[in-house]
Design a protein that fits this description.
This protein is elongated. It starts with 18 loop residues before the first helix and ends with a helix. The strands form three sheets. Strands 3-8-7-4-5-6 form a six-stranded mixed beta sheet, with helices on both faces. By secondary structure, it is an alpha/beta fold. The chain has three domains: about 5-80, Arc Repressor Mutant, subunit A (Orthogonal Bundle), CATH 1.10.10; about 95-155, no CATH class; about 175-340, Nucleotidyltransferase, domain 5, CATH 3.30.420.10. Helix 2 (about 35-40) crosses helix 3 (about 45-55) and helix 3 (about 45-55) crosses helix 4 (about 70-80). About 40% of the residues lie in helices and about 15% in strands. InterPro entries: Homeodomain-like_sf, IS30-like_HTH, RNaseH-like_sf, RNaseH_sf, Transposase-Integrase, Transposase_IS30-like. GO terms for molecular function: nucleic acid binding; transposase activity. This is Transposase.
Length: about 350
């Protein structure tokens, strides 16, 4: 069978030779084909065939004859493949690995802190350490005594790829329409809003949270449930208490497109406040809310804690501390006035 009627798939440029192609090389050499003729048939460079013939040639009849064998060429290829690629530095960095394990368990350092602090204080040089990503890879590979269950934050991360549905519901202005200047946190009055659930039972209350982007101050209000009616009643109370200062304090409110905020866009009809709805997966726009709520949950919302016990109080949260305060909404206004003065 000549090359014009070959049933073999054409060789892909840049790909390694397969065992079937090595069999063809062996057969064509036996038939007296030249290196260039075999290369034309397989669609690869003549030098590729030449190197393959040298690697796969064996001595027969007590060294009296040299002949290419496809199976020997394949075995040599597989041995060489096992030796290619970048080698792991795990054994070379044993001192640094011991340093990481010690401070992780004894001092509670994260892997990122271990990797960067060792460089910052000069205990190790760059060629003696590995990156944070490499440390996590070592954990995944089981090379360290640190296991994934020792990294609770890692287990919480959702690494799945998400896609925004084309037919997603639209409750109002999209977050994509929000002015880019708001992301700079240079102006007071731009808030992010969400709900925090407790026991998720019918009789437990819900926390309505509002975070101001520039000052990073939080307002937290207990509401009876997570319905849109309860949310709107809370905002009406806020609007009444702030009265003429409402438009200056609440310039924009950004929230997700959950059904509990379905009527929030109605605030635009009775005030100058603009409401923006974010996609549920765009957590990056709520990094402040996410971090502070984690602090709040660790401090107050333990497994045995019900939100109902906070029903007669409001909370004002600041980064690094949580303060109780009786229900009084003039605090944010005073803070704004002091900043302007």
């Amino acid at each position: 069978m000549d090359s014009l009627h070959s049933t073999m798939n054409q060789h892909v440029k840049g790909k390694h030779l397969s065992f079937e192609e090595r069999v063809i090389i062996q057969t064509r050499l036996k038939d007296g084909y030249s290196i260039r003729a075999i290369a034309r048939e397989l669609g690869c460079s003549p030098s590729t065939i030449s190197y393959e013939v040298k690697r796969g040639t064996v001595s027969l009849y007590h060294g009296k004859q040299q002949r290419y064998k496809a199976d020997h060429g394949q075995s040599v290829y597989q041995v060489n493949r096992r030796h290619c690629g970048r080698k792991s530095d795990f054994l070379k960095k044993a001192d640094f690995i011991s340093y990481v394990i010690k401070h992780f368990f004894e001092d509670g350092w994260s892997l990122d802190v271990c990797a960067n602090r060792s460089l910052a204080i000069g205990e190790f040089s760059h060629h003696q350490t590995v990156s944070t990503r490499t440390l996590y890879n070592y954990v995944d590979q089981g090379l360290m005594t640190i296991k994934n269950y020792d990294l609770p934050e890692k287990l919480k991360r959702n690494i799945k790829l998400h896609h925004v549905r084309k037919n997603k519901k639209k409750l109002g202005r999209s977050i994509e329409e929000r002015p880019k200047e708001i992301d700079q946190r240079n102006e007071f009055g731009h808030w992010e809003c969400d709900l925090v659930l407790g026991h998720k039972t019918k009789d437990d209350q819900v926390l309505l949270t509002l975070s101001e982007r520039m000052s990073r101050e939080f307002l937290i209000i207990c509401i009876p449930d997570k319905t849109f009616a309860s949310v709107m009643r809370a905002f009406k109370v806020l609007q009444k208490q702030y009265s003429e200062h409402w438009n200056d304090i609440f310039k924009t409110i950004t929230t997700d497109n959950g059904s509990e905020f379905a009527d929030l866009a109605n605030l635009e009809e009775v005030s100058k406040t603009l409401v923006y709805y974010a996609h549920p997966i765009l957590l990056v726009i709520r990094e402040l809310w996410k971090g502070t709520m984690a602090l709040f949950a660790d401090s107050f919302l333990k497994e045995s804690t019900s939100i109902t016990i906070l029903s007669n109080r409001s909370l004002i949260l600041k980064p690094g501390a949580i303060h109780y305060q009786e229900r009084s909404w003039h605090t944010t206004h005073q803070m704004k006035s002091s900043k302007e003065n």
